[in-house]
## 1
Amino acid sequence: MLLRDARPDEAGELTEPALRSKAHWGYDAAFVPSCREELTVRPSEVGERRTAPAEREGRALGFATVDGRPPDGAVGMMFVDPSALGQGIGRALFAPALATARAAGFHRPTIEADPNAEPFHRAMGAVRIAGTPSGSIPGRVLPPMAVTL
């Protein structure tokens, strides 16, 4: 598996695994399309968001972004394609994302986790810090988390 910086021309290739990852959790048919806007990786944002894919044989298995300006920052997006779940891709993405955050000057990056991903983030050392309204579903609350570096 190769971890590297993403190129702007790969943005669309990263959006699709993000959507498949979201769909993996059994949300209803209307939910995933409602997430498309917020899960779209835009070519103009790839560098600014410090986007890093994990790939095998030229295929993106997942990716993470580190967003913001010090001292406030976030692991903004982190998705693993469902076909690669259970293969250590999430762990392989998480540690370098934190290293990128540390190098950028962040002290406690936040994570707006999907409720289904909260156990993974807890296992990586993140703690829940509150509840944030979902941008996709009115009334739904996401578990914002943070990691102290």
## 2
Amino acid sequence: MTKTPRIAVIGAGLGGAAAGALLQQAGYDTRVYEQAPAFSRLGAGIHLGPNVMKVMRQIGIETQLAEMGSHPEQWFSRDGKTGEYLSRIPLGQQAREQYGASYITVHRGDLHELMVGALDPNRLHFDKHLVDVDDRGDKVIMHFADGTTEDADIVIGADGVNSRIREKLLGKEAPTYSGWVAHRAIISAEKLKAYELDFESCVKWWSEDRHMMVYFVTGDEKEYYYVTGVPEPEWNHDSSFVESSREEMRQAFVGYHPTVQALIDCTETVTKWPLLERNPLPLWHDGRLVLLGDACHPMKPHMAQGAAMAIEDAAMLVRCLKEVGAEQHQEAFELYRQNRFERASRVQQVSHDNTWLRENEDPAWVFAYDVHDVALQYPATAIEEQSA
């Protein structure tokens, strides 16, 4: 490999965009390949905890995000039917002081636009659907659906739950349907003014087997978003989501608090998505190929940390490449896995169990984490070589 290896990132979602931006910032010859023909402002919200905002700081977009996002003072958990408060988790100024950055909620599309804007536009390629990848030892050849090929020294699979890179490493295997679906909708906050109810800036409504998470996605609080977790035994649709309806929502949340009913009444369009998972993978990298985010640890969104783990992965991978040297890619990849596997697996399990912040607890193990500053844990073989 040359001193400046050529790196390819497959997928320009949040994890891929973070990897591409940080690699380009570090001076690596990095190109990002995205299968979509273009990006659009998809109707979804996202939580960005202090652990993620520290990565946004490194990318250079923390201030812009802080200006556009909503800053909840607390995370509330409430009983879905009675409205009783189950937990109150301080955020706001306490998050900034205790965890080192803000906690915000924002429109996923607005976040994505900022992250893509941090990439070199001449090295971001749309409409590039990867169909095959060939690691030849000295380089990797990528084959795209449009008939073109590209080569790179390192290929990062940030291509989601149905990752082609994961399939190359571990064989074809469909992700596991969790038995849960998520309904997603954005509501105009103007509509809510007709109700004499308190629409809090960040609240999760719980019952035994389902929930609704609700929060603002803009700093001016004009858009209010909800995402649910509802049991559904089977997913028999070929598409990644389907249209839902107010009627379906009313059936799913019958007997829930009047505030939840008001949200359903104000819903104009709502979609339904299957929640997919995988067991922790035995392999995150091989040769010149390495995975991050949903490609290696897809999880339910019930901790609001799925995208966060992908972004943390990206930052840690870049840190390890800089630490070891990209020319020593296999050592860098193993150092990356060593420093991500336990944390990602823990978040994956807690997300699966759906217990996060239902009761008062200390979230510092998630929010105080700083991927740029945490002490690196070296694999046993590396420690042995250093002491020899």
## 3
Amino acid sequence: MTKPTTIAVIGAGLGGAAAARLLQKAGYATKVFEQAPAFSRLGAGIQLGPNVMKVAAVMGIEEQANAIGCHPDFWFSRDAVTGEYLSRIPLGKSAVERFGNSYITIHRGDLHQLIIDTLDPDTLHFGKTLVDIEQTPDEVILHFADGTTDRATHVIGGDGIDSKLREKLLGPEEPTYSGWVAHRALIRGEDLKKYDLEFEDCVKWWSKDTHDESVDRHMMVYNTKADRSEYYYVTGVPEPAWNHGTSHVKSSPAEMREAFHDYHPIVQALVDETKEVTKWPLYERKPQAVWHQDRVVLLGDACHPMRPHMAQGAGMAIEDAAMLVRCLDEVGAADYQQAYELYRLNRFERTSRVQKVSHNNTWLRHDEDPSWVYGYDVFNVPLQQPGKCAA
């Protein structure tokens, strides 16, 4: 039964799409507005911890994601030069037993497609770039770049780090360039078979721990498919400034060789088999206290963008979506201000901690207990009630 409210989700990325799926599943009339002209399979990998797979189960995509994705038995951290193992974090069956769900690595586009396919197609609108909103006592009027308007009783901002809704709530403010870039590339598994080397399912190669960011760098590598036909890497490399004026640029194997010239032969093989590679600036913001105003509420990168060094950025957005819907059901959409504040209170501390650890780039470099991340269950964690400040 449809509940007496209409919710507009701005942005159909992973966080926005997850929010729309969970809202529609809970019975809320929901429509989604995405600025891209159509869905596309973006060329990047993503890691889904058990904390995120618990949400995937409720969204109804867990079985498909498990079938498509790779299930690494370990997260390995290795010294970039010697190949020495710095940590072995058990995943595989151990993750299911300890944390209640699997740990998978998958192509981001494949995961995104699974979520998009669960949505009512009549509610998904592409080519809609939000340019302004008007809030009235009863609704929000949405203005799009194509000259059209729409209306909703509530609006969720899943529109990323350059969120127009965040700007409307807090004013214009550029995110902070971190001084790091990420190179991203996909390699055919078939092309690696000629090497007498072991290309592990999930491994991060770390440079020497000098505490000097100017010389530090890393490469995270994992399979994105169950049949191991696609191998993906993403790097973190210092770059003093980003002056390209675009979201990413083409890189080259030559640039990769320069950045990782002294790395282990396994990394050299990956660079040698790189056909196409892109380079992306890494942006972040400090934790912000304001997540909502009147009928508008933010989630994911719109309110807590972070470096990808914990592989939890999308995970936090998906958790946000689940907690937001939980709080709307807990309080009732009619009392949306209380619901939004309950949501913020129950997400602020966790997302801020993940932002900090991601910024420091220390996650799983050495053996540690990842339970506080992977063991989290957004649907069953006790709710902190208003009156206890989380900011």
